[in-house]
Design brief:
GO molecular function, one term: cis-stilbene-oxide hydrolase activity
Strand order of the largest sheet: 1-2-3-7-6-8-9-10-11
Shape: globular
Distance between the termini: 45 Å
Enzyme class: hydrolase
Number of helices: 18
Number of strands: 11
Bound molecules: 2-acetamido-2-deoxy-beta-D-glucopyranose
Family: Belongs to the peptidase S33 family.
Helix content: 40-55%
Pfam family, one: EHN
Membrane topology: Single-pass membrane protein
Length: 456
């Protein structure tokens, strides 16, 4: 027992030094780095603080060209027998999806639905940023005037603001047990969909945090709440860390902590799980070897995008079949890892094919898959990693933990980074795309978090 203990501590220290360096037990409040507010746009672009109404309106020739390409798709390779989606998306499933896309999916009808909420463009640090701005329909409930709380909600990859179509009204509609309601600002990440991408290197998640902070300033919001999953979780955490005086509360699905301390506790926990995680959730972290091999199995895309994003982008930008395969595989496996064993990837268990294709279309019609995957390269450059990943947040924070989320950290590990973690809920259903898949559960968790902060 003693030998095992000493071995565990040594291994944990060794691993955290090896991966992160000698900042292991330094728990002193960090200094917040000052970021230069760089211009990311094309040379000579003028600053322009106007706010321009925007509607999605894709030229007809783009849709005609898409139809042609879909018709010219070469025969897809059938999957190996009884392998489901474990070799990647099944050619048999994709053939059916492409048939629907070509013959049943009606872009003009879908475009109208996607224009349901008011959208705008405004130029920040040289880039045109696209965002949905949805105000509450009414601000009086039971004769009482409600407080309207601004909420910045941020998507990730390979998603888009399409993921928020269902959750927005759940946030902007008053609830009988709350004396506030949300006004939702949902931007597209730079280089995603209708937001312009950078022309020079360096725009990682922290720098996007600066752009979105400036967006909120432009809209007149001094203080606001944030919500984010995937890259949105990183971006909104950055805003809380860099500009704590601006953020009333930070609600995250997919909480993540990197750095020496997290590594230390994770490795130590493989010897003494009870030091790190409640017994009930220990199997979500241990045995570590099992989780690491799963992570390696699912993260090939990540390494590629973090190193050679432009190469990956070429094929995807030219083939709608390739783009749909690349994106939809994630909507199967990241919604539930068991789906990959099913013949059809069980895509339609939680989504309609039309709404899945809406999200693929956002990448297709804007030709933005390459600029979207560059975010991995920018965020994992040595410079950006060393500058931000160890920083702690002191803003009130909630982690909404969905059972099929692709990464798991325990509450103890979350507290290493989120120093004011006021809510940490294990939710009953759902995976990585929580807003898209389980909007009711996610919005309930957010309302509870904010209610506890607003009415302590
Ligand atoms: C956490 O945030 C709440 C709300 O701002 C505040 O009242 C509380 O003192 C904070 N707690 C810590 C430990 O900072």
């Amino acid at each position: 027992m003693i030998v095992k203990g000493i071995l565990g501590v040594l291994l944990a220290i060794g691993a955290s030094y090896y991966f992160v360096g000698p900042i292991l037990l330094n728990d002193k409040p960090h200094e917040v780095p000052k970021l230069v507010e760089k211009n990311w746009g094309p040379a000579g672009v003028k600053e322009d603080s106007s706010i321009r109404p925007f509607k999605i309106d894709i030229p007809k020739d783009v849709i005609v060209d898409l139809q042609k390409r879909l018709s010219n798709t070469r025969e897809l390779t059938p999957p190996l027998e009884n392998t489901g989606w474990t070799y990647g998306i099944s050619g048999a499933s994709l053939t059916k999806i492409l048939d629907h896309w070509r013959n049943k999916y009606d872009w003009y009808k879908r475009q109208e639905l996607l224009n349901k909420y008011p959208q705008f463009l405004t130029r920040i640090q040289g880039l045109d940023i696209h965002y949905i701005h949805a105000k509450p329909a009414k601000t009086v409930s039971n004769g009482k005037t409600l407080r309207v709380l601004p909420l910045l909600i941020v998507h990730g990859w390979p998603g888009s603001v399409v993921e928020f179509q269902k959750i927005i009204p759940m946030l902007t509609t008053p609830r009988p047990d709350a004396d506030f309601v949300f006004e939702v600002i949902a931007p597209s990440l730079p280089g995603y969909g209708f937001s312009q991408g950078a022309v020079r290197p360096g725009l990682g998640h922290a720098q996007i945090g600066v752009i979105f902070k400036n967006l909120m300033t432009r809209l007149g919001f001094d203080k606001f709440y944030t919500q984010g999953g995937d890259w949105g979780s990183a971006v909104t955490s950055d805003i809380a860390i860099l500009f704590p005086e601006r953020v009333l509360g930070s609600h995250l699905n997919m909480c993540w902590v990197s750095g020496g301390q997290a590594m230390f506790w994770q490795v130590l926990g493989s010897f003494f799980p009870s030091l790190v995680v409640d017994a009930k959730y220990a199997s979500k972290m241990y045995p570590m070897s099992q989780h690491w091999s799963r992570t390696i199995e699912e993260s090939g895309y990540f390494h590629l995008q973090a190193t050679k994003p432009d190469t990956v982008g070429v094929g995807l930008n030219n083939s709608p079949a390739g783009l749909a395969a690349y994106i939809l595989e994630k909507f199967s496996t990241w919604t539930n890892p068991e789906y990959r064993f099913r013949e059809d990837g069980d895509l339609l268990d939680k989504y309609t094919l039309d709404e899945l294709l809406d999200n693929v279309m956002i990448y297709w019609v804007t030709n933005s898959i390459t600029t979207s995957v560059r975010l991995y390269a920018e965020s994992f450059s040595a410079e950006n990693r060393n500058k931000f990943d160890h920083l702690q947040s002191y803003v009130p924070t909630a982690c909404a933990v969905f059972p099929h989320e692709i990464l798991y950290i325990s509450e103890k590990i979350a507290k290493l980074r989120f120093k004011n973690l006021t809510q940490f809920n294990h939710l009953p259903r759902g995976g990585h795309f929580a807003a898209f898949e389980e909007p009711k559960i996610l919005s309930d968790d957010l309302w509870t978090f904010v209610k506890n902060l607003e009415n302590p």
